[in-house]
Every structure is written in structure tokens, then in C-alpha cells.
Amino acid sequence: MSKERTDYLLDLNEILGPKMSAKLPGFAKRFLRKRLHMDQINDCIMKAKHYAGAGFFDEALDYIGIKYRTRGEENLDLSKNYIFACNHPLGGPEALIIGSVFRRIYGDGFKVPANQILYNMKPLQEFFVPVKVQAGRQSRDIADRFSQMFESDCQVLVFPAGLCARTFKGVITEMPWKKMFITQARKYQRDVVPVHISGHNSKWYFFLSWLSRILKLKMNLGMLFLVDELFNKAGEEFVITFGRPIPYTDFDAGKTDLQWADIVKNRVKELSLDNGCTPNM
Question: Is 25 helix (H, G, I), strand (E, B) or coil?
């Protein structure tokens, strides 16, 4: 077992931080370790040929047993830097699938904002920019990383909903899209590519999300089970569809940035037509 490889293994105490780790009793840590599938993720790292870097996207998908197919790649101009705006149905698989697709198309030149759980997956950390999913303003450090991301020559994929899709009155619904990607598209002169990924989380996840709203909890309890949701997708095939790029010059003063964001969101929803999957948005 090489020291270099073991450096990429997940460590619960490191994820929790010293203060939280010291407060939690052993049974709580064992529960979290199981919920986060840390033993399986570390087993994947130990067995992977490419245990760090872009190659691990494929290794992780193969280990779990997730497959995908793409549509609309012909819409992409490989000489341009885009902002890819994607729906957020799952919370884990879409980031791995995007990473696998982008690795094939763009090599190592891409960045994906990710929640803290994904960001702590060390083999892929260089491709993820951490996003705080709880309420409150982003830290200055994260804001700086976002600016560097858009200023770079990397392709950038964003999930404007910020949170995974939830159920409202029994219908799986994408959360309202934030306007940030519209503002950044104009600022950095990047065209926006609408992207749709099929799939949805389990009824258990939706129940926990509903319960969190009812109890007015600051944290969505479903977040604790997102890695469960990832591993439960074993054997499934997802469809990722790329739409035609929208020129950044289209986002003019005729509409507010929030209105433009909603227009792009609707275009993403239209991409789910004829993909052979159950609508998830």
C-alpha cells in the first residue's frame, strides 16, 4: 500500500473538523461513516488504476455500476469556454457523470462547484470548488475561488438551483434557479450551454427533505443520505443532453437576471423530451 495512494483516502475526523469530531460519540461517528459509505469509497480508491485526477470519475462510476449516454455533443464548439448550466436532480451522480464526459471531451480543463460531501472526495478535489449549502453568505475564500474559476480557461459547470430537486404536492420539482451564472456569463463573456441530466432521488430522500421543511430545520436531513442515494443508483443508466449554446449577449437589460435564469431553466427542462426517461424536472 503506497503512502501516496493512502493520502487520498477519506478520513471522517478530517471531514468533521477537530471541534465536531471531538464532540461526537463513537456510535455517531460509526453511523456517519456508514451513511457516507466511507469504507466503500476508500475501497474504490485502493482498487482504482487512476486513484487521483480526472481518471477517477470513470473509476468511481464503474465501481458503483452507473452508466450513461449523451446527446447533443455536436452543439459544442471545442474552441470556446462555456458556462454549462445543469439541473440538479440527484446530488452526486450528476457530478461524476459530468466529470466523466468532460474528461473525454476537454481533458483536465473543467471545474464543478460541489457540496462539502463531494468536495471531500480527495481524488477529485482539484476539479471541485466548494459551495456552502447552508443558509448564509459564502465565505470570502469561496467567493475568490469562484472568481478564479470563471477567469480561467476551464470549462465551468454550475447547478443554479443550488439544492437537489424536491417534491412539492407529489411532483418532483427543481428548485428556483439563482441568477449568478447569468451575471458571470456577461462579466466573463461566456456563452451558456443548457444541460439536462435524467434521474431522481428516492422516496426516502424526498420524505427527509419534506420533514426538514416541516420542522423548519436549517439543514436538509436528506443531505446525510446523498451518498446512500449515489450508491443506490447502481445498475441505472442516465441520459445527459447538451442544448445549443446561448450567447451571453442575449442576456440583455430587456429582462432581469432572475428572469433570464428562469428562461434557461425552462430550456433545460425541454431537453428532457424524447430522452426515453421519466421526466424529473
Answer: coil
The dihedrals phi and psi of 246, each to the nearest 5 degrees, come to: -105, 120
Domains of the chain listed by start with CATH number: 67-270 (3.40.1130.10)
Question: Cell numbers at residue 14, please?
Answer: 478530517
Residue type, position 11, single letter: D
SS3 helix, strand, coil % of the chain, rounded to 5? Answer: 45, 15, 40
Q: Are strands 110-114 and 155-158 parallel, antiparallel or unpaired?
A: parallel
Between 180-188 and 257-270, two packed helices, what is the crossing angle to 10 degrees? 100
**What SS3 class is residue 186?**
helix
Q: Give the residue with greater pLDDT, 131 vs 11.
A: 11
Contacts 24+ apart (CB under 8 A), 48-52: 48/123, 51/5, 51/8, 51/123, 52/8, 52/122, 52/123
Higher pLDDT, 115 or 36: 36
